Amino acid sequence: MKSLTDTFKISNGYEIPSMGLGTWQDDNATTRLAVLSALALGYRLIDTAAAYGNERGVGLGIRDSGLPREEIFVTSKLRNADHGYQATKEAFEGTLARLGFDYLDLYLVHWPNPIQYRTTWKESVQGTWKAFEELYKAGKIKAIGVSNFMPHHIEALKETAEIMPMVDQLKLCPGITQPEIVDYCRQNNIVVEAYSPFGTGTIFEVPRMKQMSVKYGKSIAQICLRWCLQNGFVSLPKSANPMRIKENAEIFDFELSAQDMNIISGLTGSCGEVPNPDHILF
Fold first, then answer.
1. Active site residue 14
2. Alpha-carbon span 144 to 269, nearest angstrom
3. Which architecture, in CATH terms, is 12-265?
4. Sheet with strand 21-22: strands edge to edge
5. pTM of this structure
6. Of 106, 189, 194, 207, which has the most beta carbons under 10 Å away?
7. Going residue by residue through the chain (282 aa), what tens digit of pLDDT does each one get?
8. Which of 52, 107, 117, 136 is flagged as catalytic?
């Protein structure tokens, strides 16, 4: 990977940019400006979700950029409250309406086991996946996938699925490597995306990362993102600051040594904890 326009190939042949802009925790107005900044700097992947409440801002930013829609890879995710076949169909149309688009590049099931479906999660997620498959076959989604799914969740989908998930978006950052699900994805030709690549932000205070920043002449954020890239993860750094959005993209002119890659992977506890998708309270 040499630039923001380089891509990973999804199992169906569709291509996803190697890094994108995350938009969690920003309102519509802030998101619109962040998207405009990112697109002007060469980003071509924008990640949002119905639960973020900023899909309208993403759509506005993309339209205001003047770039052709087909040049931008847009991801959104199904809200936890909308699991099940019919609810998923209706939720997807709401996402398209808020974005102002007639298709999505990637649609993800945000969580496999929401609290309101705790006793029926398998049946509800299988119904959701059937709706995903139909929307994909109809051409309304270019690629379909999941987020926060562990192997047993994907195995549950496989009981009734015709199409395997093409992407799994996971919390991956220094000290949080989730080897079981990452290995499972690689064995099943599922692209891995890394959300929260800086964890909870505490990574910026870790002495070992400060030393690496000096060693490489790069920011700690850039080192985290380079670690993601060299691990083969699509990374989704979130920022609304144009200077940081620019800085985050400047990771293609250096390489971390194998030793430093291992050190970063071993920084357990530096980025908080991995959310357990079977125990979440939302």
1. no
2. 32
3. Alpha-Beta Barrel (3.20)
4. 21-22, 45-47, 73-78, 104-109, 141-147, 167-171, 191-195, 234-236
5. 0.97
6. 194
7. 788 989 999 999 999 999 999 999 889 999 999 999 999 999 999 999 999 999 999 999 999 999 999 999 999 999 999 999 999 999 999 999 999 999 999 999 999 999 999 999 999 999 999 999 999 999 999 999 999 999 999 999 999 999 999 999 999 999 999 999 999 999 999 999 999 999 988 999 999 999 999 999 999 999 999 999 999 999 999 999 999 999 999 999 999 999 999 999 999 999 988 989 999 999
8. 52
